[in-house]
Each structure stands twice: as C-alpha cells, then as structure tokens.
C-alpha cells in the first residue's frame, strides 16, 4: 500500500508528494484531483488556499524505490510513453528523455529478477588489510579471479554452495561471500547487492570470498574431548 496511489489504485507513476502532509500520489492523479479541490484526498489537510499545485513536489527517490521493487513496471511505463509520443509526435519535443520513454533499464539501474548479472569472484586476501591470514586452508586457496553469469535472483547462499562444491571445501570450514571487506547475508540476492552497494554496471559485480574454520564444530569437538579426558 505504501507504493500505491489511492486515487487510481495503481503503483506510483511520477510520484508526487504534498509538502504540507507528505502524502504521495501519481503526478497525473493529484494534478487532476487538485483542479477541483484544495485538500489532500487522504488526510483532508489544506494543500494551499488558492493555488494547491504550488505545494506539491516531484518525489524522485520514492519513484526510484517503486521502480526497483516492482518488476517490469519501469520497462512497461517507458514503452507506454514511447507509444504515446509515436502517436503524438508534436508533443515529443517537450520534456526529458525519461518523459518520452527513451531511458533504458541500464541507464536507470533497474534490475529484474530474470536478468543475467555478470560477476567476478576472488579470494579475499586479508593480508592486504594488514592482518594475518588465519589458517592454512585460507593460504592454500586459489587467488585467481573467476567470472560468472548468474540470475539476479540468485542468493548468496546458492553462491556459497557453488563455491564449496567447485573448490571441494570440506564441511569443517565455512565459506563467506563478501563485498569488499563486508560479509554478505545468505538471503541477499545479486539484485539486492547491486542496489545496496550502488553497482553501476561499469564492470562485473565484484565479489570476494574467504574460508574459515567452522568455529561451532570446533567448540563442540573440543568440549567432547574435555569430557572424555575428565572421565578417564
């Protein structure tokens, strides 16, 4: 409901916000509504005494969020605008490229679930940060960068499983996927990572991985060993 216009019931298009109460609507919807009313259609606050259109503002941030969260919305809207201006070429000289539907998904950094993302994956060299490598297994990992093409909906958990299988990493070690030096959550998708870290498609999505001993298993085995020693 936070992404939908109460006037038309659809997702925001050209999201526009009333500055008095911060309620948002599609630009076309709220402009038409304020032609016959001076009050917010949600909370009934007065927008302006005489010229309500002076107190509404385009909300680019909100619109970007809507486009990123609703698959296909941006592409469909751009197509609708291109079709409109193809039928009304006289009006095409007005407005921006986005107004005319001449902006590609790549330019807007819109990513869809079924899109294929190019990524690079390489071993995280902790020594570059001035720290020592923790274990021999990490030292023995191949540091060569590898390139993959994966669906945008692929999760970090799937990528970890792929690395474990491909590199034959035993279960006594845990694999962490990272962006720069920050470990990524298992439920993050590649699309999430691209948005969170503002990947601009100027190269493969740069990811890293590291391999560390599985601390939980080590603690359990250590506790079992102590128990056996005390019994003997």
Automatic annotation (TrEMBL):
Component of a Polycomb group (PcG) multiprotein PRC1-like complex, a complex class required to maintain the transcriptionally repressive state of many genes, including Hox genes, throughout development. PcG PRC1 complex acts via chromatin remodeling and modification of histones; it mediates monoubiquitination of histone H2A 'Lys-119', rendering chromatin heritably changed in its expressibility. In the PRC1 complex, it is required to stimulate the E3 ubiquitin-protein ligase activity of rnf2. One of its GO terms (molecular function) is zinc ion binding. The keyword Repressor applies. This is Bmi1 polycomb ring finger. Residues 5-44 form the RING-type domain. It is found in: Nucleus. GO terms for cellular component: PRC1 complex. Pfam families: RAWUL, zf-C3HC4_2. It comes from the Eukaryota. It comes from Maylandia zebra (zebra mbuna). Component of a PRC1-like complex. Homodimer. Interacts with cbx2. Keywords: Chromatin regulator, Metal-binding, Nucleus, Repressor, Transcription, Transcription regulation, Zinc, Zinc-finger. Residues 86-105 are annotated as: Disordered. The keyword Zinc applies.
